[in-house]
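Please produce the structure of this protein holding farnesyl diphosphate.
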Amino acid sequence: MTDGGSGGAFPRHIGVIMDGNGRWARMQGKARTQGHLEGLKAAKRIVKAASDMGVSWLTLYTFSTENWKRAREEVSFIMGLVKRYLRGELDFYRQNRIRIRHAGDPEGLPRDIRGELEAACAETRDFEGMQVILALNYGGRDEIIRGIAKLLARNADPPTEAGFRLYLDNPDIPDPDLIIRSAGEWRTSNFLLWGGAYAEYYVSEKLWPDWTGEDLEMAVSRFRERERRYGGAEA
Ligand code: FPP
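Below is the modeled complex.
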């Protein structure tokens, strides 16, 4: 495993929109749930690869505030996978000192999933390796609205941009440098709307269940070729 090649700065925080599980299943003549099962395996490969490469924060868009619109069976299958992931990977997190965190509204999660998530976050909270942020019941607009509600509840002064970020889900985590989207769609889909303001995007045609560490290396290598100007002029 390489660190994604030489060149510009290495991305410290990578966000991933794991798209294409359903299309993968359809192409294989399988049920959508099989696509999610393979998607979970891909997520494990990418977590391992990112940890080996030295990524500091990896945010996985696992379930959005809009995904509740899906069929009840599909929603409960994905929630089951999340539970299985949180329990089954604990030894792996311990060995690799990986810390699990959450982005999104915990209130809207089923009680058992919320319990598993809180337990995994608590168990790993002192680990100093990579941090995996599960975006679960997460929406970028919802994060901002919940932030405004927290701010109003404190009767705070009108915020600056730097001040407002303190009301987001994980204010200590820096903005994502790179946002990866699998399955070829060019959309943000309500992911990291505030933090991703200046993220570099990498869109791959490859469906999420087919992703391996080499795909992550390619995304990082492409990122390192870019010049980030944050609205400024060329150096
Ligand atoms: C998008 O594909 C995928 C999801 C909404 C679910 C993502 C969940 C996983 C990868 C499994 C759980 C992972 C972890 C880390 C616990 P889609 O269903 O929208 O695909 P389509 O656009 O081809 O239909």
